[in-house]
Amino acid sequence: xxxxxxxxxxxxxxxxxxxxxxxxxxxxxxxxxxxxxxxxxxxxxxxxxxxxxxxxxxxxxxxxxxxxxxxxxxxxxxxxxxxxxxxxxxxxxxxxxxxxxxxxxxxxxxxxxxxxxxxxxxxxxxxxxxxxxxxxxxxxxxxxxxxxxxxxxxxxxxxxxxxxxxxxxxxxxxxxxxxxxxxxxxxxxxxxxxxxxxxxxxxxxxxxxxxxxxxxxxxxxxxxxxxxxxxxxxxxxxxxxxxxxxxxxxxxxxxxxxxxx
Length: 261
Hints:
This protein has nine helices and seven strands. By secondary structure, it is α/β, with parallel strands linked by helices. The chain has two domains: 2-66 and 225-248, no CATH class; 80-214, Rossmann fold. The radius of gyration is 20 Å and the shape is elongated. 38% of the residues are buried.
């Protein structure tokens, strides 16, 4: 139920969708005679659209989110490496090869880098299907296909393919490792997502050390303007989604702090 509610809420809360709905509501208010409210809504939607799409405001806010959890020294002999899914697709309109790399594929690359550094550690990739209305192959299988295409084998990767949310990532991985959860585990995910992720894994009793990757914020440069509005709106979407997730997870006891560090 939590997964379904989050998907439905996000359909409205996504910044570009929200601005469209705000402009639409403003138009309806104007038709109904509430002209002052209509003008306010149109002006607000225009200002927000310009601030998000054409300035570095998303980069400023993204940098703050990405630095909540600082990079720390990794253990000499970790019990294992846990890579959270989020950057690999398994289906396309034309079929294809069973995987395609997306924005967050840095997670898998970082995981493979750590796998080479710690060959004796367990290597777990956790990622199911995030689709609500379609039946898609779990992302873990896409990751496996990508690794096999690169190396000819799976590099000893263990797959967790049922999770759909960060909390389910933590629950399912905890079930996989069982009594072997002692020791430190390296957790790999996007930097903007790391705070919520470590909070969930610590709640289920796994001692994780963060290895953030997939940094999105660009360096701030005067006059702080951008000409790639789709990318800026993508950053804004990630920001809004992550902050909503942080509040929701803390409120429901999935993390022990609003901003786990």
